[in-house]
Write a structure and sequence with these properties.
Layout (H helix, E strand, L loop, with lengths): L1 H11 L5 H26 L12 H7 L1 H17 L3 E8 L7 E6 L17 H8 L11 E8 L4 E9 L7 H17 L3
Antiparallel strand pairs: 1-2, 1-4, 3-4
Length: 188
Amino acid sequence: MDKIFTIIKSIISPEQNWSAFAMKIIGLVVVAVISFVGFKQYTNLTVEEDNQNIPIVEVFENQPEKKNEVDDLLNKLLRSDRDINSVWLYDWVDARNVVPLMMLPRNSEDLLPTGYWMEGDEYVIGHFVLNSCTSLDRDVINYACAIISTEDAWGVLVVTYVDGSEPDLKNTKVTALKISEILYLQNN
């Protein structure tokens, strides 16, 4: 404790001349002000939520107009090709679970009826994480693309086709990218 008093006493004690003392005091004040401003900036530091790392269902709850835009896109996709049998939008809430959010038509067959990825879907999940489209290993002709934010895949768009038809890969991919843009990149 005595050493602290000695240091403080040596800082505020006069020097041989007034200019050296003034420079020492000015330097001390500058260091104190910089420390105070730095501490205030540190305590006021907040991280802004960026709407990038939340499931699709939460985006729909917080901004219902986005749900309407996505529903319109899915309807347009369904009407764009007569060979499309159904369109499904799944929310990929965690690594294992998928939840159907929207399906057109409403009575269509669910390709993920258990709410989980099925055995053998590991290959497909890798494609989704890397933002590429692929088909699920099912008896139905289908094509699936991930719904992505800037950092992660948060959903899957699955389009099934009538037997014997050729999937429209480009239209499905563009629709998935547009849904991703609406959900995670537009600031409404």
